[in-house]
Amino acid sequence: PMRPLSHTRFVLRRPVRNMHWLILSVAFPVIMYFLLAGPNKNNHNCGGDATHPTGLFAPQYYMVGLISFGAMVAVLSGGARIAAERTIGWNRQLRLTPLTPGAYLRTKILVGYLMALVTIVLVYAAAIMLGVRLPIGSWLHTTALVLVALIPFAALGIGMGHVLNDDAAGAALGVGASLFAFLGGTWFPITGGGLFVSFCKLLPSYWLVQAGHLGLGHAAADPWGAGVWLVIAAWSVACSARARWAYRR
Fold this sequence. Notes:
By secondary structure, the chain is mostly helical. It has helices spanning 4-17, 19-37, 58-76, 78-87, 90-94, 101-129, 136-149, 151-163, 166-184, 195-200, 204-215, 226-248.
């Protein structure tokens, strides 16, 4: 019978065997990092000019964006695997085993987080190659905040995987990740005020990017106050409830 521990071991081995998924989900952010940060490896005034210097080291700035994007894609892509499992009837088979919905969801989240950690570590290694040097506390602080901000995305990917079919899941998750990245400020800083900025600050992707900047001590980073924790908690609870409902359905 498929018990929780057996299911966890089985699910953890699957991504390692899927080289296409590993290349797209793990290697792609690293390749993008070198393409963006490589030509700017000597730029210590990213996003500024002689009149308005920022003091941002370009490889460090792009590192924050790529760990946010890569980790988000890693946890969301679990939804595509779930949709594929549903297509071949694997999820229906699991319902005949002692595996509980809670254990199933925890395993899926664990796998997504492990893949996100692999992505983060690889982007960190690429950043070090381009000259990024930080105290160990900054690396750990950044990683911890990013992992917290990933919670709603892990649940969202699972929920979408149980709602969409195999053909639609990949496209929908790709579009969703791109929109979240754009509205979160992954590729460019979102600053100022107005309705657009206020809307972006209601999204977990904005605070996922800010988590990286805050962990590295960037002066321009928005602090994580009580309102931010409320945004992350609300999205996490809503997406988790949706994922549980979709699985039980």
